[in-house]
Amino acid sequence: MSGLHLKPHKPDQDGKILGVTPESAGWKYVGFEVYSLKKGDLLERKTGKNEVCLVLLSGRATIRTEKKEFNGIGRRMSVFEKIPPYSVYIPNDDRYQVESLSDLELAVCMAPGKGTYQARLIAPEDVRKSDRGSGKMSRRIHDILPEDREADSLLVVEVFTPDGNTSSYPPHKHDRENLPHESYLEETYYHELHPRQGFAFQRVYNDDRSVDETICIENRDVVLVPEGYHPFTTVPGYESYYLNVMAGPVRTWKFHNAPEHEWLFEKN
């Protein structure tokens, strides 16, 4: 299996089914975990040097930090309800406790923090919704933690791609510190599919093809994007959800389009 492709495993004693650290990914900024918790489970962690965004993929919970408590949050029972999630932002040098009030799928998004902002709830009404692209390139966007919302490093967004459509497309990349034209951002893709027995494809490649991998995605897989273009495509009959986490030295998303495919923007 590709070093850019992670499969979920059975829940460990804490309920974790997926884990990415900067050390395991071979990069500097992004960490990512997914927990599958049962009703009544408790998850307790210190944030350490990282700021954290907890995204309730599905289910309900009470989340406590050192100074804040968010009681009974969560609405959707599946990401494919396609309503924005409840999320909680937590700064570095803090801690959190998650008490699951139902079966709970929880994503933990991490990147270096500077202690600039306090813990806060990101409610569904705080999430910007938009449609991007047209025709077979159309998809729905939920901006959970975009660059115009308070955070030190993290950028978090979820994307819904209809069956038979292609997203993160036309191909783009963000792997060079070349502002204002392009920013360096590491990125993880956490995938879910509906129905869950489906599959999809993601390609990660750079200009000289020293990186060029096409990955068959199944439900709950993670793809790492350390560099290069990274388009994603569904197959007929299976729609897609993915959660993107990005971070780098500067908190801005400036991307470079693959020149040979820029003509596709005329269709948008």
Question: How would you characterize the overall build of this protein?
Answer:
- With 268 residues, the chain is mostly beta strands.
- It has one domain (5-264): Jelly Rolls (Sandwich).
- It has one helix and 25 strands.
- The chain has one helix at residues 22-25; strands spanning 5-6, 16-20, 31-37, 42-46, 50-58, 61-65, 69-73, 87-90, 95-100, 104-112, 120-122, 128-132, 139-145, 155-161, 166-167, 172-173, 175-178, 182-184, 186-194, 199-205, 212-218, 222-225, 232-234, 239-247, 256-257.
- The protein has a seven-stranded antiparallel beta sheet, with no helix packed on it. A six-stranded antiparallel beta sheet has the order 2-3-10-5-8-11.
- Strand 17 and strand 18 form a beta hairpin.
- The longest helix is centred in the N-terminal third of the chain and has 4 residues, at 22-25.
- It is globular and about 50 Å long.
- The mean pLDDT is 96.
CATH class wording:
Mainly Beta
Largest sheet: 7 strands, antiparallel
How far is the N terminus from the C terminus? Answer: 35 Å
Q: What's the CATH H-level superfamily name?
A: Jelly Rolls
Which strand order does the major sheet show? 1-22-19-24-14-13-12
Q: How many DSSP helices? A: 1
Task: Explain briefly what this protein structure is.
It holds the Pfam family KduI. With 268 residues, the protein is mostly beta strands.
